[in-house]
Specification:
Blueprint (H helix, E strand, L loop, with lengths): L6 H25 L6 H14 L5 H15 L4 H14 L4 H13 L3 H14 L4 H10 L3 H14 L4 H12 L5 H13 L19 H18 L3 H14 L5 H12 L3 H17 L3 H17 L3 H11 L6 H17 L3 H14 L1 H5 L10 H6 L5 H11 L9
Helix pairs in contact: 1-2, 2-3, 3-4, 4-5, 5-6, 6-7, 7-8, 8-9, 9-10, 10-11, 11-12, 12-13, 13-14, 13-15, 14-15, 15-16, 15-17, 16-17, 17-18
Length: 400
C-alpha cells in the first residue's frame, strides 16, 4: 500500500525545497560573472529577487548584481532602475553608486554621473574608483592627469586608471612612446592583482595570465590608435594563439587588415571570428563579429549584403550601442545606393539607439565639433542639419 503523507508534511517539504532553491539562486546571482554570463546572472538574480520578501541589504546586493548584468548588455535604463532600488535599500553600496554614475553618463546625464561620483568619494575618501571616475570626466588634461595619479595612489592596481594615463600620453606626439611603455610595464607585472574585472570578462576568470593578456590586448589597441598596425597585429596574433576558440582576437585582426587595405583578408578574418563565436557559444559577442563583417562588405561595394546582415541580427539580443554602429553602416549603404529616405531613417534610428555613436561620426562631422555638443547632454539641430547636407553630398563619407 502506498504511503500517504499528511498535507502539512508535504507543504513543509515543498516549502523547504523552495527555500533551498531560492538560496541557490542567491548564491548563483553573486557568483555568476555578469560580464561574460550576463543572461545566467540575470536569471539567477531575477529568481532570487522574486523569491525574496524582505526589503533588506541582502536584497539590495541581488538588485545591484542584476543591475550589473543589465549594464554589461547595454540595457542601461533597466540597470539604473536596479541600481536605484539597491541604493534605496542600502545606501552604503558605494560601488553600486559609482556604477550608476557610469550608467547615467551613458544616457547623456553627465550631471547625474558627476553627482554619483562626488557622493561616492565623500562617503569613502579613499575610493580610487570614485576619484578615477571624476578624473575621467575632467576636461583639462593636466588636471585629469593629476586626479588619475591620485586615484592610482589610493588604488595602485586599478587597471582603468593606468590605462587612462596611457590614453593621456597617447594624445601628444611627445609622449606617445611613454603610453606604450606604460602598457609594456603593466604586461611585465605578472604578479600584479587587478581589483576591477571589467576589462577581463572576455577572457574568463580573473588570474595573473588573464591580467597579462588583457593588457596585451590593450597594448595592441594602443598601437592600433597610433597607426602602428603591424605591431598591433602581432599582439592580436599572440592572443589568437592563446585563445583560438575566442572571437575577439580575430575581430581585432580584421580591424587591422581593414586599415592595411587588405579588404578581402579582413572579410575572411571577420567571417572566421563569427564562425568561432557560433561554434564556442559566445552569443553575446557574435553581433560584434557580424558588425565587423559588414565593414569590408561596405568597402567592397556589397551594399545589399550590409543591409541583409543588419536585418539578420535585428531581432537578436545585441546591445543598443552595437545596433547603433550597425545602423550607421546601413545608412552609408543606403546612401551609396541612392536611397536617401532609407539612409535618413537609419541615421534617426542610430540616434534613438545610442546618441553617443551618432556623435562619433568622422569626416566631415567630427571636425565640426559636434562631440562637444553631445558631452553637454545633447545633439542639437545643427548636427542633424549637417547630416542632412551630408546625405545629399556624394563626397561626404559617413563612417565611424
Amino acid at each position: 500500500m502506498r504511503r500517504m503523507y499528511p498535507i502539512t508534511t508535504l507543504a513543509a517539504f515543498l516549502m523547504t525545497q523552495a527555500v533551498a532553491l531560492a538560496a541557490n539562486d542567491a548564491v548563483d546571482c553573486h557568483t555568476a560573472d555578469p560580464f561574460r554570463e550576463s543572461q545566467k546572472t540575470y536569471d539567477a538574480c531575477n529568481r532570487a529577487i522574486l523569491a525574496s520578501e524582505e526589503k533588506d541589504k541582502a536584497k539590495a546586493t541581488l538588485l545591484a548584481q542584476r543591475g550589473e548584468a543589465y549594464y554589461w548588455v547595454d540595457h542601461i535604463v533597466e540597470a539604473i532602475g536596479d541600481f536605484n532600488s539597491a541604493l534605496t535599500l542600502d545606501p552604503d553600496l558605494n560601488d553600486t553608486r559609482i556604477q550608476r554614475g557610469w550608467a547615467r553618463m551613458r544616457t547623456g546625464n553627465p550631471a547625474g554621473a558627476y553627482s554619483d561620483f562626488t557622493d561616492a568619494l565623500e562617503r569613502n575618501p579613499k575610493s580610487g574608483r570614485a576619484l578615477y571616475a571624476l578624473g575621467f570626466m575632467e576636461r583639462n588634461p593636466d588636471r585629469k592627469r593629476k586626479i588619475i595619479e591620485q586615484a592610482i595612489a589610493l588604488t595602485p592596481d586599478y587597471y582603468l586608471a593606468h590605462d587612462a594615463l596611457a590614453e593621456i600620453d597617447n594624445q601628444s606626439s611627445a609622449t606617445r612612446d611613454l603610453a606604450i611603455k606604460r602598457l609594456d610595464f603593466l604586461i611585465n607585472q605578472g604578479e600584479v592583482k587587478l581589483n576591477s574585472v571589467r576589462y577581463l570578462y572576455r577572457f574568463g576568470k580573473l588570474n595573473t595570465k588573464n591580467y597579462h593578456d588583457s593588457v596585451l590586448l590593450n597594448r595592441g589597441d594602443m598601437l592600433y590608435t597610433l597607426g602602428r598596425y603591424e605591431e598591433a597585429m602581432r599582439d592580436y596574433q599572440k592572443l589568437a594563439k592563446r585563445y583560438s576558440g575566442h572571437p575577439t582576437p580575430y575581430v581585432k585582426q580584421a580591424t587591422v587588415l581593414m586599415r592595411l587595405d587588405r579588404i578581402n583578408d579582413a572579410l575572411a578574418m571577420a567571417q572566421k571570428s563569427h564562425d568561432v563565436c557560433v561554434e564556442n557559444g559566445y552569443s553575446h559577442l557574435c553581433g560584434e563579429s557580424i558588425e565587423m563583417i559588414m565593414e569590408p562588405n561596405l568597402h567592397l561595394g556589397h551594399f545589399e549584403n550590409v543591409i541583409k546582415l543588419r536585418d539578420e541580427v535585428e531581432n537578436q539580443r545585441n546591445s543598443d550601442n552595437l545596433r547603433a554602429t550597425m545602423s550607421i553602416q546601413v545608412a552609408q549603404a543606403y546612401k551609396s545606393l541612392g536611397k536617401i529616405d532609407e539612409a535618413r531613417a537609419a541615421f534617426v534610428r542610430t540616434g534613438q539607439l545610442d546618441p553617443f555613436v551618432l556623435s562619433l561620426i568622422s569626416d566631415p562631422m567630427m571636425k565640426l565639433g559636434y562631440y562637444e555638443g553631445f558631452w553637454e547632454g545633447k545633439i542639437d539641430e545643427n548636427f542633424f542639419n549637417g547630416l542632412e547636407a551630408c546625405l545629399l553630398d556624394a563626397t561626404c563619407k559617413v563612417n565611424i
